Hints:
Elements: H1 2-32, H2 38-58, E1 65-70, E2 75-81, E3 89-95, H3 105-117, E4 121-126, H4 137-156, E5 161-170, H5 172-183, E6 189-193, E7 211-216, H6 224-236, E8 241-246, H7 260-278
Amino acid sequence: MWWRSIQTAGLILGAWLVVSANAFVVLFGVRLRHSHCRGLAMKPLAILGLLLWNTAAFSADIAGQEMKLPTAERQVRVTYFHAPGEAKRPAALLLHGGGSFDRRLQDYASYASSLANAGIDAYLVYYYGDGQSAYDFTTSYVQWAKLVGDLADHLMQQPQSNGKVGLVGFSNGGTLATGAAALDPKINAAVIYYGTPPYWLRRHVDHYPPLLILHGDADAVIPAEAGKELARRAEEVGTDVDLVIYPGESHGFGSNITAKNGNDALTRTVAFLQKQLLGRVKE
């Protein structure tokens, strides 16, 4: 993605400047040893290289802020990643799988930071209540889906919002996102990583927002057929669907954005959400 290209270019340029400065000292140090200009000549070049190195290495990182947001049922813990600037902007709610975000917290934080850098406020949503876990998924599904809808409605009403919210769900969170999006027609888009149709709504679904469905064909936890079925059901009710199946990829690849397929899925997610929530189309 564009900011990663800038980051890489900065790293390369910074490294080249540092190495060039050091090489210059090695080659011409004897001649410059008696020159009053030696320090003045070399320090700015080396310092510039180090500044570019450090800026490129860290400028893409956005720190998350812990907070709670209101719903009709209860306050919900989230980690908020603020998109740069103060212009009105959309939001994306990230929904975890069965093990919550904590198993790979840094990976999900990097994922959310990438969305924020793309101009979309990102929220890691801890939707479990006190004492709840993945074992409560089927019995609490409708309750959690309504809770996600409440969060989306709340964010749309905030002064920084452009009035649009998308969902990004992983595994159980992907399945939860399909239910929340089916119940709340104000949700504008959903990205479903290795999820299923919203079986636990136990009702006919006649609406989905535009969907991006990402699945691996070697997924032994939620087989890729579930993603294909979701795509078929959504298309039957007139939804725009983009289904991407990754050959040889297993469950859980989406949070590893440094790997090839994880990074490709993130790139697709950013482009999809920018189109649906910001009206930007990648050329």
